[in-house]
Structure formats: structure tokens, C-alpha cells
Amino acid sequence: MQAQGEAKKTTLTITDNRTGKSYEVPIENDTIRAIDLRQIKVNPDDFGMMTYDPAFMNTASCKSKITFIDGDKGILRYRGYPIEQLAEKCSYLEVAYLLLYGELPNKTQLADWSTHITTHTFVHENMKKLMDGFHHDAHPMGMFIGGLAALSTFYPSAKHIEDKKERELTFYRLIGKAPTLSAYAYRHSIGMPYVHPDNELSYAANFLSMMFRIAEPKYKPHPALEKALDVLFILHADHEQNCSANAMRGVGSSHVDPYSAAAAAAAALYGPLHGGANEAVLRMLDEIGSKDKIPAFIKEVKEGKGRLMGFGHRIYKNYDPRASIIKKLADQVFEVTGRNPKLDIALELERIALQDDYFVKRKLYPNVDFYSGLIYQAMKFPVDLFPVLFAIGRMSGWLAQWAEMLDDADQKIARPRQVYLGYVTRDVPAMNQRG
Length: 435
Ligand code: CMC
Fold this sequence. Notes:
The protein has helices spanning 83-89, 92-101, 107-118, 126-132, 140-154, 164-189, 203-212, 223-236, 243-252, 258-270, 277-288, 294-302, 321-337, 342-355, 357-361, 368-378, 386-406; strands at 11-16, 21-26, 67-70, 75-78, 81-82. It is mainly α. The longest helix has 26 residues, at 164-189.
């Protein structure tokens, strides 16, 4: 027990029972540095102790000041501001600025920032040729990822990643052009001409115009739908060290240009366990088809024959605060578009799952992707575009994570260790001696 008046020690003492030796390592922010374990050895020429942590279940890969999540309490904050307040009081561009610069913009800063983004929405005409090269049924996420990587060839000076002016330009370009690439991917898939950005529209409205404008001289989306899309971008803007942010940081740590790093992040997002889940939810609801088929579907999930997509989260073990906001948003959207008939299946699925021991025990709750797809579909976005919509919002978060990584003196090229369990050494046999 600690004696009265004795200063609390911020160290951890580890005893290696193989040798009986004890080691004292410093604790900072409730963490120890893995490299401090390297001194723990049985023999002097041993490599030294490492930690084994597949999937980073309990390893902090960085220090960050961007996003805070308390998964047990269902809390999500960007730069200290609760997601609920940001969704209610701010626009996506304000939130993007907050993520990148650490503070909300004042009126002048917001006007400048919006102008910069708006005036960087156009893409080089050759990008249309790139889009034209894809099959008509190419998945838009593949086109989007390809488009991001291709942008690096149009802006070769972006590789000067220490140059703050270049970085700023990259922020404007990637946030500005992400909706343009997405809309072009969609227009290509339906064989419609590409629609140029409209500088008079808001970020979300311009995207809707590039997606859906046909022959109208001016496209004006319904204000409720414009607002809903903007809120969805806010909810997706960042989520600390998720799979795609980790890809952005990991790939960016090689000091590649930011367009290539963003393409890698978007590729990570594409997977059905991450941003591809919103698409998978809709496909799952289609497959279930009607409420009476839900019990059989849940039974199969519990037997390990598939997952209930849009449920569960590595961090949230209570509820995903983004899902709660989206559920309310859905009502506002459905007032304009009419109710998505799949909502009834989703609500019933949620009701049954939340009462079922399998899901309760594992703390599986609806995540951001469970209801977002229903809104997107009601707004007439095709299902395979859903992950791209996630990526548009997440672009600002990726860039904030990337810039923070570059400015962090602790960071180096990301290069994990492994526990090698293969053959020690053996001779190459001749072809006729191989099994
Ligand atoms: N349906 C059925 N069982 C599940 C599900 C699910 N959606 N998610 C987790 N489980 C089970 C899993 O089988 C395991 O059971 P057991 O202990 O018996 O082996 C247990 O719950 C723990 O799962 P895990 O895979 O170890 O958990 P994780 O933290 O590695 O995975 C997850 C998190 C999000 C990948 C996972 O919950 C999942 O696959 N969910 C469905 C996909 C999805 O909706 N993804 C979107 C995530 S939110 C958007 C984003 O930020 O990307």
C-alpha cells in the first residue's frame, strides 16, 4: 500500500518469471511504450520482448487531438465538440475546417474556406477520359479509388508534403474534387453526360446537382435533402484510428503524395466490414425480403452463416451515437421522399436483435451503416454508390489524420514487427524431389 505523502509512481514494474528479473518502465497517458519491453531478455543476444497484437486490439499507434470516442458511453467528439451539436449547428465544411485546423472557423475564415473548396471542385478534362475507360458496370468505389490515385499525376508538386502551401492546396482539392469524382463515376455508369460543378450551390447541393441534374438550367435540391446529406457527411467525417484512417497514416508514413495515400484509405474503406457495410445492409434487407423471414435470418447469423450487417463495432459497445442521429434524420428525409419500405424490415430486425441473447451478450448494436443506406436509397442514390458517399465525408478526416501524422515527431515509417513461426532454414530441393 502507498504510504501517506509518498508521491504516486507513474511506472510499471514487470517481473520476468523466466529470469526473476524486474524492470521498471514509465507510464504516460495510461500507456507504456512497446519499445521499453525490448530490454526484457533471457540471454543477452536475444532480440528482446515484443507485444503481439493482431488487429491492434489494444495498441495505440499514435497520439491524436482530433477525435475522441468513448465506446462504452456512446460518445463521439471532434476536437472536443459533441457530434450531436456539430450535426445540429454546423455545416460539413465548418466541420472539415475544424478537423483540419483544430478550431471552428469564424465568419471570414468560413467564407474563405468555402471559396477555396468551391473553386477546386473542377477536375481536369482528362479525368473524364479516365472515367470513360471503365466498364459501364464498374463498381463506383473502384472508379473513385482509381480517380483519387490518378489525381496524383495531375498534381505532382503535392509530393512536397512538408510544404504547408502544397498541403493546403491538397485539402482544397481532395475535399473539393471528391464529390465530382463520385458523381462522374455515377454518371458514367448510367451513360449520362458529366455535369460540371455549380459554384453557386452549397457543398451538398452541388454534389446532388452533379449527380441528378438532367436538362434543368439550374438544379435545386429539396432543402431537407440537402441538409440531410450535409449531416451525413458530418457524421462520417472522422472516427479516429479506424481501418481507413490507419491506412491513410500507414501509407502516408512512407511520404508518398497525399492523393496516393487517400486512394489507399478509400480502398480500405471499400471493404464490407468498414465503409462497404452500408451497401451490404441494403443487400441484406433485400435478401431478407419481408418481416416474416427475419427469425430464420437471425437463426442463420447465430449459426455463424453470415453477419447481421450494420451491427456491431470494435469500439462502440453500448450504442453508436451516429446511428441515433441518423434514425431521426431518416424520418425527416422520408417526409420528403416517402418512406423506404425496407425501413419496416430494418426496425423489426433491430427490435428482434436487441432482445436476443446472442447480440446482447456480444454488445452488438446498430452502427452508423444500419440506417444510412435507407436514407441514401430514398434519396435515389444507387446502392453501390453508398461506400463512395461515406468516402466523401471521410476525406476531411483522412486529411486531418495524415497532416497530424506528418507533424508528429514520434512518427516514422509504419513498419510492424512479426512473430515468425515458419521454418528456420532448409535447402531448395530439385524439381523432381518436390512433393
Ligand atoms: N453479426 C453477427 N455477429 C457479429 C457481428 C455481426 N454484425 N459483429 C460481431 N459479431 C460477433 C462475432 O462473430 C464474434 O462472436 P464470437 O465471440 O462468438 O466469435 C463477436 O461478435 C465479436 O466480433 P468480432 O468480429 O471479434 O468484433 P470486431 O470488433 O473485430 O468487429 C465489426 C467489428 C464492425 C467488424 C463487426 O462487428 C462486423 O463485422 N459488423 C458487421 C459489419 C459492419 O456493420 N461494419 C460497419 C462498422 S461501422 C462503420 C465503420 O466505421 O466502418
